[in-house]
């Protein structure tokens, strides 16, 4: 049956998807060693085009997956080998198709990875090398560089395979009607949610105090030769960068950090320090350490004005008042969001939340963020919640009001009601078929050699060309 066939293929891809996500998150711990170890012929488990898979590559990925809590029931060493073979096949043909991943792009990712690793061990590179049992930073960076480049090539190749695939309404209709009624998927209960964010007002005196202090830091560095990095370690409220002296690496063509931060970073020369400037996180000063073409190394110090309990209580009173006005129908939730919400991303759309996974306004209950789930699960449609105290990424408190604007109970898929979800399934199947066809054709045309125990694996693809 069509749906069962698709579900089987999706199950086969689940290992691939989990592994890709794992590799992105844990790039620092799984290292390919093609160029370094080509002379170790007895350590080669497979060759795919210009790439090799070493015994140690399989061992490392298998161990790392288990260490991350992935159930061994979900994968075998043969699954791991199959995934590695796919990656090498994609990367090999990406090069053949002149798909380019620039060294600058890879190096930027390497720097970000290493900055993150250092932040986890107090900023000490020697501790990073010791943790990953590496003797040499240059070799360590090379291994990381090779792995990241291979993964980026593989990612670009897979995107190229499916980038032009679309499904017409006729294809969606045909896909749906080919699924027997008894086999049609169940779609979970869904909600549409709107919110109003009310942040306590920051007193001007508190802002002035923070700006004055940042100006003092700047003057001490410029006039007395004080260390900007040391001041960041001692005083900055930015936890991720504080241990590294406030350091970040930014790339002009890869937006990272908020707009105001980027504008300050790319407007200064080496050694210059910005005037204090505001972002959603607080107030900063920023110094440019090094400019390398499209990249710039900066350090910053973040301070946040203090908000008193009285200011927070005023925000709660406003939340209580707005809630009652909405319940009394003096003002609509949409209009209250537009006039009073401090969240610019939602206030102009009636406070409607957008699902970060699907980019629409629907949230499936079983896939919802647990904290949001607990706040809305008992809300009736059209009822406004009591004020909810929350904290943003910087630890600043605020209040919010929530309302469920629409609620769908769990139901069997219906073409009209669930067209977008059915379209997504139809597109996914078409993409899976395209990838499978591409793999089948390229495996035939690519030099592939598998040795040892991995010749006995039962692969989804015909890697052994039997």
Topology:
Blueprint: H1 2-25, H2 34-37, E1 44-48, E2 51-54, H3 55-67, H4 77-96, H5 103-120, H6 125-131, H7 137-162, H8 169-177, E3 186-187, E4 190-198, H9 204-224, H10 228-235, H11 239-242, E5 247-251, H12 259-265, E6 277-279, E7 282-292, E8 295-303, H13 309-327, H14 333-340, H15 344-347, E9 362-364, H16 370-376, E10 388-391, E11 397-408, E12 411-412, H17 419-445, E13 448-450
Antiparallel strand pairs: 1-2, 1-13, 3-12, 4-9, 4-11, 5-8, 6-7, 7-8, 10-11
Helix pairs in contact: 3-4, 4-7, 5-7, 8-17
Task: Give a short synopsis of this structure.
Helix content is 48%, strand content 15%.
Describe the structure.
The protein contains 17 helices and 13 strands. It is of the alpha+beta class and 466 residues long. The strands form 4 sheets. The protein has a 4-stranded antiparallel sheet, with helices on one face. It starts with a helix and ends in a 16-residue tail after the last strand. Mean pLDDT is 85; it is low at 7-42.
């Amino acid at each position: 049956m069509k749906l069962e066939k698709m579900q089987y293929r999706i199950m086969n891809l689940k290992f691939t998807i989990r592994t890709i996500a794992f590799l992105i998150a844990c790039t620092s711990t799984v290292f390919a060693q093609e160029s370094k170890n080509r002379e170790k012929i007895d350590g080669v488990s497979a060759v795919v085009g210009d790439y090799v898979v070493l015994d140690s590559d399989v061992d490392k990925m298998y161990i790392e997956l288990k260490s991350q809590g992935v159930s061994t029931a979900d994968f075998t060493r043969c699954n791991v080998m199959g995934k590695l073979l796919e990656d090498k096949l994609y990367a090999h043909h990406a090069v053949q198709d002149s798909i380019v991943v620039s060294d600058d792009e890879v190096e930027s990712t390497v720097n970000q990875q290493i900055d993150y690793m250092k932040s986890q061990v107090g900023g000490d590179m020697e501790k990073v090398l010791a943790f990953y049992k590496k003797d040499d930073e240059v070799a360590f960076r090379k291994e990381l560089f090779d792995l990241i480049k291979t993964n980026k090539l593989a990612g670009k190749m897979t995107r190229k395979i499916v980038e032009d695939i679309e499904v017409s309404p006729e294809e969606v209709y045909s896909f749906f009607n080919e699924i027997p009624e008894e086999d049609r998927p169940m779609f979970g209960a869904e909600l549409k949610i709107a919110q109003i964010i009310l942040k306590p007002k920051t007193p001007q005196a508190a802002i002035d105090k923070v700006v004055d202090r940042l100006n003092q830091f700047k003057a001490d560095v410029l006039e007395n030769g004080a260390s900007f990095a040391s001041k960041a370690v001692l005083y900055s409220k930015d936890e991720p960068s504080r241990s590294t002296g406030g350091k970040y690496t930014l790339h002009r063509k890869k937006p990272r950090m908020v707009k105001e931060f980027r504008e300050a970073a790319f407007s200064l020369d080496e050694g210059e320090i910005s005037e204090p400037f505001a972002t959603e996180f607080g107030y900063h000063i920023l110094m440019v350490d090094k400019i390398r073409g499209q990249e710039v190394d900066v350090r910053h110090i973040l301070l946040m004005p203090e908000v008193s309990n009285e200011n927070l209580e005023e925000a709660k009173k406003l939340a209580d008042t707005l809630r009652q006005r909405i319940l009394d129908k003096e003002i609509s939730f949409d209009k209250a969001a537009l006039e009073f919400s401090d969240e610019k991303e939602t206030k102009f759309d009636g406070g409607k939340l957008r699902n970060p996974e699907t980019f629409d306004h629907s949230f499936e209950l079983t896939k919802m963020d647990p904290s949001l789930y607990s706040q809305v699960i008992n809300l009736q449609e059209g009822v406004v919640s009591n004020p909810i105290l929350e904290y943003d990424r910087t630890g600043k408190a605020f209040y919010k009001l929530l309302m469920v604007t629409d609620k769908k109970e769990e139901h069997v898929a219906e073409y009209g009601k669930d067209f977008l979800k059915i379209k997504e399934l139809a597109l996914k199947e078409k993409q899976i078929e395209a990838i499978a066809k591409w793999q089948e054709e390229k495996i035939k045309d690519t030099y592939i050699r598998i040795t040892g125990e991995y010749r006995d694996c039962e692969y989804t693809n015909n890697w052994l060309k039997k």
